[in-house]
């Protein structure tokens, strides 16, 4: 096992140098037959420490990305969208793949001034549905009550 210190070479040779940092490494290639092993092992230790710091920074940055979104609100939105797809399948009497192009934009509904305007938007969207849509519209308006519009995450400036 070789020891490299953070001080000058003379301090390393003297075996001390109060306050110097000590790095422990196993020798390379079975015995350390190099001339400048003290300097290269210090560089290796510094580069290894830098790599650890970079990995920690990446993990920290990845954590920030998920925190920017409100997970509870996203979960509620996902449950609502799954319910909408299921209900539309029942209204149109077909599977999701066979369903006509129907787009219900929750954020657009949340932008509407009142319940009547939301109901009108939904009726316009479902105009070609042959089954009664009143119950679906009423239930959907009840489910979106209290929801917030999702905005894209804000990027932090450096």
Give a short summary of the structure:
This protein is mainly α and about 160 residues long. Helices cover about 55% and strands about 5% of the residues. The protein has a two-stranded antiparallel ribbon.
Task: Provide an overview of this structure.
- By secondary structure, the protein is mainly alpha-helical.
- The protein has a domain at 71-145.
- It has 6 helices and 2 strands.
- It has helices at residues 9-14, 37-67, 71-92, 106-111, 115-125, 134-144, and strands at 2-5, 22-25.
- It has a two-stranded antiparallel sheet with strand order 1-2.
- The longest helix has 31 residues, at 37-67.
- The two termini are 43 Å apart.
- Residues 1-13, 46-56 have a biased composition (Low complexity).
- One of its GO terms (molecular function) is protein serine/threonine phosphatase inhibitor activity.
- It holds the Pfam family PP1_inhibitor.
- This is PP14C phosphatase.
- It comes from Cardinalis cardinalis (Northern cardinal).
